[in-house]
Amino acid sequence: MFNTADGEREAERGVDQELSPGDFQTTHQTARGRISYAHEEVTFVIDGQLLTLQQFGKMVEAYEGFEFCLHIED
Question: What would the pLDDT profile of 26-45 be if each residue is shown by its tens digit?
Fold first, then answer.
């Protein structure tokens, strides 16, 4: 959550769609969502956006060389 200029609280989004359709970028270093299956492939749903494994990979390219923690909860 963060405060807007007028003091209202809004939820932080984990991904934003870039100018090119189908390309996404992280807004922070944390994205939360769920693993799904669509069109016969594994997908990720983050902030209501459906990302394919390829789109997810492209989104995290900027973090090459970084470490990460994958935490899956039920």
Answer: 777 788 899 999 889 999 99
pTM: 0.65
Domain that holds residue 44: 31-64
SS3 per-residue string spanning 27-62: CCCCCCEEEEEECCEEEEEECCEEEEHHHHHHHCHH
Domain assignment present for 51: yes
- Write the CA distances from 54 to 3, 16, 60, integer angstroms: 33, 16, 10
